[in-house]
User: Which sequence fits this backbone?
């Protein structure tokens, strides 16, 4: 993750694809007796998903070297068509790919995995593991950027962004298996906040 390149971009994209699949599987899980399958409205989930999609598209652009090359490109030599392709179609393609998360997180998904069966808990494990992988990849890249910037405020911003990115998927899961207003959910929420704070503190 240190040097932006195509291999790392593929790693990031592959992890994101697994993560989106994990979120879709979680949404396919039927709610437990104390849970609910209707966490937030579609509009609220869309806003959270768009926030994730925007940050992921920036992450992908960084891995593809866009931010570094944008200051080196000679637009006078590229012409209008070349400039439009470079500055519009490329970022547009990354953003379109990241919108896959909006589809699986915000739009209607019919729950079909019955609570209490082995498939249910396998689905839960898959969703949690893929979310953890996405978190690790994003933190790895944030650490690289932190080393480049060398500013203490980066860790604070990273913590706030990570909360906005990864607390909603955890709430989505907890709302189904235990309900958000339960002792296990409170404990899990505190745990994830502490974990995110520790990860972000390493960048200060």
Assistant:
């Amino acid at each position: 993750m240190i040097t932006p390149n195509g291999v790392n971009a593929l790693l990031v994209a592959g992890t994101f694809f697994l993560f989106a699949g994990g979120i879709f599987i979680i949404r396919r899980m039927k709610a437990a007796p104390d849970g609910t399958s209707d966490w937030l409205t579609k509009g609220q989930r869309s806003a959270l998903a768009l926030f994730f999609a925007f940050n992921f598209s920036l992450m992908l652009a960084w891995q593809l070297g866009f931010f570094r090359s944008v200051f080196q490109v000679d637009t006078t030599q590229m012409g209008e068509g070349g400039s439009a392709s470079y500055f519009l179609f490329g970022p547009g393609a990354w953003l379109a790919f990241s919108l896959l998360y909006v589809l699986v997180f915000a739009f209607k998904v019919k729950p079909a995995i019955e609570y209490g069966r082995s498939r249910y808990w396998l689905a839960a494990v898959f969703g949690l593991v893929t979310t953890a992988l996405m978190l690790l990849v994003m933190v790895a890249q944030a650490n690289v950027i932190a080393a480049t910037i060398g500013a203490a405020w980066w860790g604070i911003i990273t913590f706030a962004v990570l909360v906005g990115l990864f607390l909603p998927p955890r709430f989505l899961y907890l709302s189904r298996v235990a309900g958000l207003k339960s002792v296990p959910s409170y404990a899990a929420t505190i745990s994830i906040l502490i974990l995110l704070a520790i990860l972000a503190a390493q960048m200060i």
